[in-house]
Amino acid sequence: MRNLDTDAIETFQNLAIELPSWAFGNSGTRFKVFGTPGTPRTVEEKIADAATVHRFTGLAPKVALHIPWDVVDDFGALRSYAADLGVDLGTVNSNTFQDDDYKFGSLTHTDKHVRQKAIDHHIRCIEVMNETGSRDLKIWLADGTNYPGQGDIRGRQDRLAESLATIYQHIGDEQRMVLEYKFFEPATYMTDVPDWGTSYAQVSALGERALVCLDTGHHAPGTNIEFIVAQLLRLGKLGSFDFNSRFYADDDLIVGAADPFQLFRIMFEVIRGGGLDTGSPVALMLDQCHNVEEKIPGQIRSVLNVQEMTARALLVDTDALADAQDTGDVLGANAIFMDAFYTDIRPDLAAWRAERGLPADPMAAFAQSGYQEEITAARVGGTQSSWGA
Ligand code: PSV
Ligand code: MN
Ligand code: MN
Q1: Which UniProt keywords apply (predicted)?
Q2: What is the predicted ipTM?
Q3: Measuring CA to CA, which of 45, 145, 205, 225 is 20 to 30 A from 331?
């Protein structure tokens, strides 16, 4: 591929993006969730769709599960089913936000019985991971308060630390816990893990196998996300990404759709910090919903966007950039950076795919494959899955 040396090609080839099972279900705003023909009715059908994205792109070898949305009787069998389709089961996402008991919190709750219930749910998730062969337990909490004075901020942090420590004891030697942060929603005044600093403080107290998960949609507008990426990589605490893009809130739009330049800057820092090196501990995942657009093409587009910005980030002439930076050549440095971003690398990527037996244009190939028509015809009856089921 154009201008990429052997090391850069190796880095590029390491790119693998995990897909969330829930991206294939119906989801949307609180106003209306629109159904889509062919939407999966079972966990197996979600996995089949995810495997299809991988087949057309070669970029998505894992599917993340959400418990209890993706509960099956036999997770070992689900693992084999996925393997037969060419994918592995990935991150297990816990859910302590859809039960009345969690109205005032889960791992932070003042009532020790509720805390224990939330801890037990995570222990169950780890058992699932043992059966699915998953490495990562991802925790995103809806815990927080709506009004100043409603909760004891400090006490909630202390209880969170205690609950996480209990869960962490159950994490296997080859497993990890990643703690996701979000500065708003559903709580309106304060969330208990609002930012990377809080996540970092909490996971650092636990041990090596506890890391931070960065969801690109969970920051205030204007936040310099690539700075956070650089810092967490520097500290060895960036465990995973939830990729998506946003215009206003936690929009969960296709990654790279709202701001490809931001994705470029993030991928540049990922590469700079070794996050795409062979054996890197950084897991790249999508956390997206497709409300009005088709879901499988939505996921194909997403992984291609990450691939494209990765390739462009690898085009940055880092030697020339370092020179310009060292000599105080502000505009020269910026120009080197922008040159890479503005380079249209799509023809190179198409050729690269074709050389590897993948469709040069995965979007077109999927549209022509008949898969969508097949699932639309086959998946009648039953209940379509949705975000939350
Ligand atoms: C809610 O904000 C959320 O989008 C988090 O980002 C989680 O990763 C995801 O839901 C699934 O639980
Ligand atoms: Mn997320
Ligand atoms: Mn989110």
Answers
A1: Cytoplasm, Isomerase, Manganese, Metal-binding, Rhamnose metabolism
A2: 0.97
A3: 225
